[in-house]
Amino acid sequence: MTAAAPNYELIQQDGLETSLLEVSMGPHHPSTHGVFRMDVKLDGETVVDLKPVFGYLHRNHEKLAESMSYLASMPFTDRLDYFNSMTNNWAYALAAEQLIEIEIPERAEYLRVIMSELTRLVNHVSLVGFFVNDLGALGTPLLYAFREREKILDLFEQASGARMMCNYFRFGGLRCDVPEGWLERTREVVDRFPKFLDEYEKLLCENEIILSRTQGVGNLSKELAISAGITGPMLRASGVNYDIRKVDRYGIYDRFKFRVPFSEGDVGDCYDRFMVRMLEMRESIEILKQALDGIEDGPIMGNAGKVFKPAKAESYGRVEAPKGELGFYLVADGTTQPYRFRVRPPSFINLTVLRDMCIGQQVADAVIILGSIDIVLGEVDR
Amino acid sequence: MTTPNTSPSVELDDTTRAELERAGVIVSKVDFLYNWARGGSVWPLTFGLACCAIEMIASATSRFDISRFGSEVFRPSPRQADLMIVSGTVTKKMAPQVVRIYNQMPEPKWVIAMGACAISGGPFKQGYNVLKGIDRYIPVDVYLPGCPPRPEAVLQSLNYLQEKIRTQDIKSDPAFTEGRRQYPIPEFTGTDLEPPYNPDVWQPPANPNAPAEEEAEEATA
Questions:
Q1: For B129, which of A60, A147, A150 is closest by C-beta distance?
Q2: A137, A186, A298, B97 - which has most CB atoms within 10 Å?
Q3: What angle do CA B114, A170, A58 make, to 5 degrees?
Q4: Is residue A44 classed as helix, strand or coil in its secondary structure?
Q5: Could you give phi then psi for residue A303, rounded to 5 degrees?
Q6: Do B89 and A34 touch (CB under 8 A)?
Q7: Closest residue, chain A, to B122 (C-alpha)
Q8: How far apart are CA A160 and CA A168, in angstroms?
Q9: ipTM of the complex
Q10: Closest to B94 (Cβ–Cβ): which among A30, A35, A143?
Q11: Cβ of A58 and B57 within 8 Å?
Q12: Which is nearest to A319 in space by CA: A381, A246, A380, A263?
C-alpha cells in the first residue's frame, strides 16, 4: 500500500507522517448482521469517519405492494423484519383497518397482543445473543438464546403453520384460531421464561468483559436521539420515556399494566441498550400473563372481504415493534390496490446515527455499536 | 461414471479379503476414502443474505445441531470454506459479490441454493432488483426450496450434498482436474446486471409455447 493511493491522505501526527486507512467492512462480513457495508476510515485503531452503504437487500417491497391487492401484501410484510413477522403484520393491518373501518373481535385483539409480545421475546433474546456474539463470546449465549427462541417458534408454528413467516394477521382479525391446548402451552413457555432470564442475566449482566467493552461505548445523547427520530429500545436507552404501546394504546394495550424500562442517565451507551432489552423482556412476560388470563372464547375474524375498494384516503398505522416504531403509510385511490405503500422502518432510521456513535471509537467497537442498534437488513433496505 | 464410488469394495474374492482383514488390512478405493472424508467435514461459509440465514443459523444451534453431520465449522473466510449456502435473496447489487466470493473459494467447492429467492427470485421475482436465481452465474449443486426452509430441510440438503460428494471420481471430476473454477463477475450497472447470465453455466429454458420454426416463417411471410 503506497501513500499515493487515492484513498489515503497524509496526516501529520506527533511529527510522524501517517496515513488514514480506509477499510470496507462488508457486504460479506460476519459482524454486519446481513449484507451491510461500512466504509470506515481509520487512524490507527480509531474510527475517524464512517459511511454506511446499504441497498444490498433492496427487494422493492413498496413497488411490489403497489401492484397487488391490499391483502396480498400481508405475506410480504413478514419478510421486512424477518425476526418479527407478527408485529409487521399488525402494523400493516392497523394501517389498512383504518381505511375500511372494521370492528375487531375481542379474542383476536388478545391474540394479537400475545403474538406480538412473544415476538418481542424472540427478537430481544436473539438480539442479545448476537450482540454478545459480536463481543467475541462465540457460541454459548447465542445457543441459549436460540434454545428459547425455538420454544416460541414452536408456538407460532402451531398457530400459523410457519416458524418465521407467520402471515397470521388479517384485516379485521386473524387468519385462524389457535389450536386446542395452545394457550396452555403458551402459559407453560411464559412461566418458564423468567427462569431462563435469571440465568441469562446472571451470565451476562455483570460479566466483567461485557461491562468494560460496552460501558461508555457508542454514546447517544438524548437530544440527538430525539432529533434523529430514533425510536424503540434505542431511544429509551438514551433516557426518553417513549413507548407507542403507552402513547397510542393501539389494540387493547390500555388494559394491561406494564412498565416501560428506560435509562435514567443521559449516557445512552451500548450497555444501556443491552439492559433496556433485558428489562423489556420481563415486562413482556407480565403483559403475556395478563393477556393469557384475560382471553376468552369468541370469534377471531370480523366481516372483512378479501378484496375491497377503500375510498380515497390516507392512513398511517404504527406499532411498537421490537426495534422501534414500525409504521405503514397507505394512500388509497379507490381501487383494490394501494396507490402508495410506504414503510417507516425502525431499523433504517435508527441506523442513521451510526456514524455519530462510531466516530472516535475503536474499530472493534464499531461492530458492537452496530450490533446494539439491532438492525435487520430486510427492513433497512426493504 | 462406470462404477459408483459409494461402495468401499474393490474386486477381491472373499477368501483374500477375509485373510487381509485378519491381518489388519482393509482394502479400499482412494475415491471412497477421499469422498468419505470430504463428505464428513463440509465446512460452510458464514454467509447470510436474508431471511434464510436465520434458519441456517438455527440449523447450527443445539436443537438441530448440524455438527452431527460434520458441518458445524462455519468459516467467515471463503478461503477456508468448502460449501457456500446462498441463504436468501440475491439482489442485483449483491450478485457480483456472491460470484466474487465463490471465485475465492478453493476447490473442491459446492453450492446450496437455499430458499425460493436464491433458486428463482421467489416472491420478489416480479420486482426490478432481484436476481432470478443464483444459478445464472454459478453452478448450484443442491436446490433447497422453502420460504424459508426449515432447519431440518437444511440438514437434508446437506445429506443430499454428501450423497453427491460420495459419487465423485477424483480422476475425472473437473473439481480435481481443472483447478479452481472461476466465473466472470457480472457488472452491476445501476439498473441491471451485465451480462444477464453466464451462458457457460445457465441457458434460458426453451419456451414451450413458441411457435415451431415453420409456423414462425409462415407468420413472417
A1: A60
A2: A186
A3: 40
A4: coil
A5: -90, 80
A6: no
A7: A59
A8: 6
A9: 0.84
A10: A35
A11: no
A12: A246
For residue B199 the three cell numbers come to: 451462458
How far is CA A259 from its chain centroid?
A: 19
Task: Identify the pLDDT of residue B1.
Answer: 38
CA distance B28 to B82: 25
For chain A, the straight-line distance linking the first and the last C-alpha, in angstroms and rounded, comes to 37
With helix as H, strand as E and coil as C, how does A116-157 read? HHHHHHHHHHHHHHHHHHHHCCCCHHHHHHHHHHHHHHHHHH
The three cell numbers locating residue B67: 455438527
Tell whether the torsion through CA atoms of A205, A210, A215 and A221 is positive or negative: negative
Domains within chain B, CATH numbers bracketed: 42-161 (3.40.50.12280)
pLDDT, one tens digit per residue, over A238-258 is 988 899 988 888 888 888 999
CA distance linking residue A368 with residue A230, whole number of Å: 18
pTM for the full predicted model: 0.86
Give B179: exposed, middle or buried? Use CB within 10 Å, 0-12, 13-18, 19+. exposed
Q: Which residues of A touch B (CB under 8 A)?
A: 27-30, 34-35, 55-60, 63-64, 67, 75-76, 79, 82-83, 142-143, 146-147, 149-150, 163-165, 377-378
Query: How many CA atoms within 13 Å lie on the side-chain side of A227?
Result: 6
Q: Do A47 and A40 contact (CB within 8 A), yes or no?
A: yes
Over residues A105-153, the pLDDT tens digits come to 899 999 999 999 999 999 999 888 888 888 887 778 888 989 999 999 9
Measured CA to CA in angstroms, residue B15 lies from B8, B9, B24, B167 at distances of 17, 14, 14, 28
Q: What is the dihedral of CA A62, A63, A69, A74, to 10 degrees?
A: -30
Contact, A327 vs A317, CB < 8 A? Answer: yes
> Chain A partners of B76 at a C-beta cutoff of 8 Å?
29-30
Q: Which among B54, B76, B94 is the nearest to A82, CB-wise? A: B54
Residues on B contacting A at a C-beta cutoff of 8 Å: 46-51, 53-55, 57-58, 61-63, 76, 78, 88-89, 91, 93-94, 97, 101, 123-124, 126-130, 147-148, 150
User: What are the structural domains, with CATH classification, of chain A?
Assistant: 10-53 (no CATH), 61-381 (1.10.645.10)
Q: Among A369, A342, A339, A375, which Cα is nearest to A354's?
A: A369
* Neighbour-count burial for B120-131, b at 16+ CB within 10 Å, e otherwise: bbbbbeebebbb
> Chain B residue closest to A78 (CA)?
B51
